[in-house]
Amino acid sequence: QVQVVESGGGLVQAGGSLKLSCTASGLRYEHPTMAWFRQVPGKEREGVACINWDGTYTYYADSVKGRFTISRNNAKNTMYLQMNNLELPDTAMYYCAANGRCGDHGHYTDFDYWGLGTQVTVSS
Fold first, then answer.
1. Alpha carbon of 19 to those of 30, 68, 86, 104: distances in Å?
2. What is the pLDDT of residues 13-72, one digit of tens each?
């Protein structure tokens, strides 16, 4: 049974930092491409960051470049999203996804497995 579980969300002041984690288990492919998405009510889901199987290629949405860093530790089956200099528009539910394709400008597609999300709220 595939399980994708996010953690690390919370409330933070603008300019602060948070680190999200995502653990995936039960996948057929041991180290799949993984990504972070986010969504706010009433808006479409947005691709935030994406990473290939060994971390040699990373992709970022234009809105988070220079502030967010995606990484992974395959020995722990865990992916991370370090978020620095958070801004009010970063407030969203953040979702981890596994086994898909990375693309430019947040265009990440065909992800098969999803977590339930972790809420990030940035306050002024």
1. 23, 9, 11, 23
2. 999 999 999 999 988 878 899 999 999 999 999 999 999 999 999 999 999 999 999 999
For 103, the token pair is 């693309």
**Radius of gyration, CA atoms only, the chain:** 13
Q: 87: alpha, beta or left, given left = phi > 0 and alpha = psi -120 to 50? A: beta
Q: Which of 63, 115, 120 is nearest to 92 (CA)?
A: 120
CA distances from 45 to 39, 106, 118 (A): 5, 10, 14
Q: State the Cα–Cα distance between residues 108 and 48, nearest whole angstrom.
A: 9
Q: What is the pLDDT of residue 88?
A: 98
In degrees, rounded to 5, the angle at the alpha carbon of residue 12 between the alpha carbons of residues 103 and 3 is 50
Instruction: Show the tokens assigned to 31.
Output: 């180290």
% pLDDT > 70, the chain: 100
- Whole-number Å distance between alpha carbons of 11 and 102: 28
